[in-house]
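User: Hey, my collaborator sent me this sequence without any context and asked if I could get a structure. I don't really work with proteins. Can you help?
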Amino acid sequence: MIEILSPTELARARQTGALVAHILQTLKGRSAVGTNLLDLDRWAQAMITEAGALSCYVDYEPSFGRGPFGHYICTSVNDAVLHGLPYDYTLAGGDLLTLDLAVSLRGLAADSAISFIVGNSQPPESVAMINATESALSAGIAAAVPGARIGDISHAIGSVLRESGYPINTQFGGHGIGSTMHQDPHVPNTGRPGRGYTLRPGLLLALEPWVMVDTAELVTDADGWTLRSATGCQAAHSEHTIAITNDGAEILTLPKQAQP
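Assistant: No problem. I've predicted the 3D structure and written it out in structure-token form, which is a compact way to encode the shape of the chain:
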């Protein structure tokens, strides 16, 4: 299903995006050395509930997972990159943490992810990888203009990731979003320009470049959810929900302090 939102629906989607951005930035600020992943999950639950929103994850039960996800946020640490199931783990200095959050407010969903390093240590390899995903995300957003195609976005993302030296996995990527978290079209993190669905004003997309240092192969944890690099190398993931408008792409999940 591909949804095209009306101006009224887009206004509601902006509110959802602002909430997602606020929760992620709040949790990033609380992600210090000694913070437990389960505390991050509880804080996410409290903020979602207080806002009158709904989690897109608690009852999420796709074919690739093991039963309902059962938590409010994905917390992926170091070699984990996607669908990180929160567990009893205390963050250490130098950990590369990815927080991925999707909520629904007044019937419309937004999805975003941020990767950052816990504590004062800033390993250059981790910084470079995070920067590459953020640059790829910016390139994909810049390519998301009315009349362009999904392949144009994928090509823009993939070009940055490839030039940065990272292998690219196409099994999981970006996606349409609207009244539900995951919709068509699929947006791979690499592709051929001029191919795929034509972008129209009112379309919402969640773009999410992610990479692992030296592999494109994933393995699934015993928890049935957390996806890790097959080689044990570190991974990073950046994501925004955007709306296609007559003037280009509008980022709905941009934190207030980062807004122009």
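In plain terms: DSSP finds four helices and 14 strands in the chain. You can pass these tokens on to your collaborator as they are.
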